[in-house]
Each structure stands twice: as C-alpha cells, then as structure tokens.
Design goal:
With 142 residues, this protein is α+β, with helices and mostly antiparallel strands. It contains 4 helices and 5 strands. Strand 2 and strand 3 form a beta hairpin.
Length: 142
C-alpha cells in the first residue's frame, strides 16, 4: 500500500513538474507560427481541386469549424478556423500543374494562445502534423 502511494506521489509530482515547465517554456514561444508542406499527386488539377474544395474535406478536423474565403477556382483556397479557443489561423491551399499531375502546397498561418498548447504544438505534435496527416489522407482519397 505504501509503495503504491509512493509511486502515485512520484507520478503526480512528475506530471505537475512537466505541466509547469511546459507552460513556462510555452510563454517564451511566439503565439504565431508559419508552416508549409507540399505534395505531388498524379491526378489533374481539376480532380485535386474538387477534393480540397469539397466542404466535407474540412470535416477531417473533427469539431473545428471553418469559414472559407472566396477562392480562385482551380488555384487557391483559404480556410480560416472560427470559434477556436485553443488555436486558430488559416490554411491556404495552392494548386499548380506539375507535369501530368498536380502540386498541392498547404500553408498554415497559425496562432496558439495557450502557452501549454503552444509548447505541445511545437515540441510534441509538431506544427506541420495536421497538414502532413491531411496530405496523406488526400492521397488515399484520390
């Protein structure tokens, strides 16, 4: 029983130390970040455009809500997170012909107000994780 309580106390202390340290480091990180990733798809621009401009493609992010800026059809689409408390920003999708296929570049201009989430986003998840996941899911969808 005493060993179990000692282990629990160590775990609680370690968790508290991590949270305090991560939050402190997070206060030293910038709120805004910029990340960009590209992928090439064998499909023509029109087919890739149909996939990324479909409002259902934004649902891949669960509870997040987006507003869509006026696109440049077949070339540029901008989506902005709305109502996000822990993070926000935009994704800009740029499509360009690449040989017989398409080059898709997604640029995130993100904001993470919470110091703890800022730390996690930077050092645990990585700012580009959501884009990388989206690009891979799109590859399977196409």
């Amino acid at each position: 029983m005493i060993i179990g309580l000692a282990i629990l106390a160590v775990l609680v202390a370690a968790t508290a130390t991590f949270l305090v340290t991560a939050t402190f480091v997070g206060t030293r990180l910038p709120v805004a970040h910029h990340v960009s990733r590209s992928a090439r798809y064998a499909e023509p621009v029109a087919k890739v455009w149909d996939a990324v401009s479909d409002p259902r493609s934004a649902r891949a992010f669960g509870a997040l809500r987006f507003e869509q800026a006026i696109p440049v059809p077949g070339r540029v689409l901008v989506r902005r997170v709305v109502g996000g408390r822990d993070f926000g920003g935009t994704w800009t999708y740029e499509l360009a012909p690449d040989g017989s296929g398409t080059r898709l570049t997604i640029t995130e201009e993100g904001e993470v107000p919470s110091p703890l989430f800022r730390f996690l986003s930077r050092f645990v998840f990585g700012h580009a994780r959501a884009i990388d996941t989206y690009l891979e899911a799109l590859r399977h969808r196409l």
